Amino acid sequence: MRFLIGFSFFCFTLIFPFNVFSQEIDEKFTVVLDAGHGGKDPGNTGNGYYEKNISLAISLLVGLELEKYKDIKVIYTRKKDVFVDLYKRAEIANKAKADLFISIHCDAFENSNAYGAGTFVLGLHANQRNFEIAKKENSVIFEEDNYEQKYDGFDPNSPESVISLVLMQEDYLDQSIIIADLIQKAFVTDLKRKNRTVKQAGFIVLKYTFMPSVLVETGFLTNKKEGAYLKSINGQKEISSSIVKGILDYKNKFNNVQNIGQSNSVKQRSDSDKLIDNYFLKIQIASSKKRIPLKSYNFKGLKDLTRSKFGDLYKYYYKNTSDYAKAKEYLFNAKKTGFSDAMIVAFKNGNRITLKDYLSSVKN
Ligand SMILES: [Zn+2]
After folding, report:
1. What pLDDT digit, counting tens, does each position of 204-231 carry?
2. Which domains occur in the chain, in start order?
3. Is 100 in a helix, a strand, or coil?
4. Ligand 1 is an ion; residues with CB less than 5 A from it
5. pTM for this structure?
6. Distance between alpha carbon 258 and the CA centroid of its chain, in Å?
7. How many angstroms does the Cα of residue 152 sit away from the middle of ligand 1?
8. How far is 263 from 270, CA to CA, in rounded Å?
9. CA of 89 to the centre of ligand 1 (A)
């Protein structure tokens, strides 16, 4: 309920001309790529390799691949060997209203036998090892000016301090775990990398982002074989293609209203409805300038929520069906729940169409 007070204020029933609508719905899926470390902060230097260089090379390769998709926008926290404060990295992502934040790193361990790729989401570390990884990645704030003020007195060396980190990312945790899982899956199935599974730890760079966010430890520079692999062009290409695959899989899963671009095989899925081509109906329940987490408690208990963006306004939808009779039921339910301005809206391949066009197309 916490968002509803300011939020209902923005609800409106104004209907735009539909040709404008379908143009504006073309919101790009925005991915922020965060190459760990940089400039005066080399990251770990296992086997003489520089983490900052390898994380940058992999990030650029991931970006290059993603930029081929016309419906994806890629933003980098750095494209060169420069130092960027951790909070600034998050700020870049928040400003861009990104859909995903992917921080790319390489691991190090005193035992040079350790190897494998791991993907982390923000959370309480389950063991000392995860705490140590987060501590190492967080310690970069000592290089920043006024870090005490900037990070509210956060102390990377204190396990208790980490607990305060996790609350803000809570709303995005489910989705962060999904993207982390998909990246891990790509590492393990495509590259046969040792699976260090998805883990939680208190990474400060993930704290301040307001979107699903993960930190990928692509492998250990301290391991002789893995270090050489991560340094090699081939290794970097393979790693980046797995990260790309994870991102695309995630996008397909959550690409709510927009279409995927080159493929029309993507079907909107909901209930057990059989969908007719890519025609579908949703119940628009609200609009807001705020990006509100799609949690039922933010929407009076309604479930099956999706969102799209028109200009600087977010539209919120309930349900997804190709059955007009069902859509009317859902509309009734939404109104009964308190969304009195709710309305049925129709889409074809992710573009808004009139209900009339929908009904005549579906009949044929
Ligand atoms: Zn790192």
Report:
1. 778 778 888 999 999 999 999 999 999 9
2. 4-25+263-363 (no CATH), 29-254 (3.40.630.40)
3. strand
4. 36, 43, 105, 137
5. 0.62
6. 16
7. 22
8. 19
9. 14
